[in-house]
Amino acid sequence: MSYGDPNNPYGAPQGQPQQPGYGYPAAPPVQQSYGAAPMTTMPGKVNAARVMLWVIVALQVIGAGLFVFSAVAINKAKNDNSVPGLADYPVGVLWAFVVLALAWLVWAIVLATKFSSGGNNLRVTTLVFGILTAVLGVYPFLVVVGIFHIVLGILIACFVGGADGKAWFGRPRY
């Protein structure tokens, strides 16, 4: 059978060809939305990371206060020669720890306050803060505060670095 045979069911269609412009108009293209709705509330893990930053702020206030108290007490003991063993402790190192604790405190406050409006740069900075906090918490590991810093630093890095943190800090802001 050839395509020229009018009785061939598999042949070329017979009749007049369809002309464009007749019949129903073509439908407009379908707009598909692949993204989720914009986030309006902070996910629980990201909010927990922000709360942990505030806990670190409180620990830094306590630590800076202890360093100041120790520096003043050692300096007074050196001047009075009341306790001869304290004369060997360097007071300048304690004041350096005070400055470091206050700098860490300010950094944690800035990060915690920017969580609701910050973008991906804040996320990366918070990851760095959490990792450095965990690493620096190893030094005073024998002290309970060091263990708290290690745990909080790891949790902050995990919560901000996870999928919820990526979605929150990468959300569109209109």
Automatic annotation (TrEMBL):
The keyword Transmembrane applies. The chain crosses the membrane at residues 51-74, 94-112, 124-142, 148-169. It comes from the Bacteria. Keywords: Membrane, Transmembrane, Transmembrane helix. Residues 1-22 are annotated as: Disordered. Residues 9-22 have a biased composition (Low complexity). This is Integral membrane protein. It comes from Streptomyces graminearus. The lineage of its organism: Bacteria, Bacillati, Actinomycetota, Actinomycetes, Kitasatosporales.
